[in-house]
Design goal:
CATH architecture: Beta Barrel
Number of helices: 0
Largest sheet: 6 strands, antiparallel, barrel
Shape: globular
Distance between the termini: 19 Å
Strand content: over 45%
Helix content: under 10%
Number of strands: 6
Oligomer: single chain
Low-confidence stretches: none
């Protein structure tokens, strides 16, 4: 991916499976190269009302990330940025053969206990 400000960004991939009839969460940490940007009103236009005022940011990545599906079993990846946790809630794929990349919207879900500040 070509960006003006590429960063190594930390994220947590959440998955799980049933063990003895109980859902057990698993988390796997990784990094991707990307960029974080503020959102505009137009970015939030197609989000449900309850997702518009949670604190949002745009994430650009050259790697695919998991997207949260409301009401489903799929949980979005957690991006760690500026000492906070952000859940991936929307994806746009730009695969035009020129500069392939992914654009995501991420919603603030809380502070990151392992980070004291700065970028993820």
């Amino acid at each position: 991916m070509s960006t003006l400000f590429p960063h190594n960004i930390r994220y947590i991939h959440r998955s799980g499976s049933y063990v003895s009839g109980r859902w057990v969460f698993q988390e796997q940490e990784g990094t991707f190269v990307g960029s974080v940007q503020p959102v505009t009103g137009k970015d939030t236009e197609f989000l449900p009302e309850n997702r518009r005022d949670t604190g949002l940011m745009k994430v650009y990545s050259n790697s695919p990330l998991a997207v949260s599906i409301e009401g489903g079993e799929s949980q979005g990846d957690i991006v760690i940025w500026a000492g906070k946790r952000w859940e991936i809630i929307q994806e746009l794929v730009f695969a035009n053969g020129l500069i392939d990349h992914y654009k995501y919207l991420a919603a603030f879900i809380g502070p990151d206990e392992q980070t004291t500040g700065g970028e993820g």
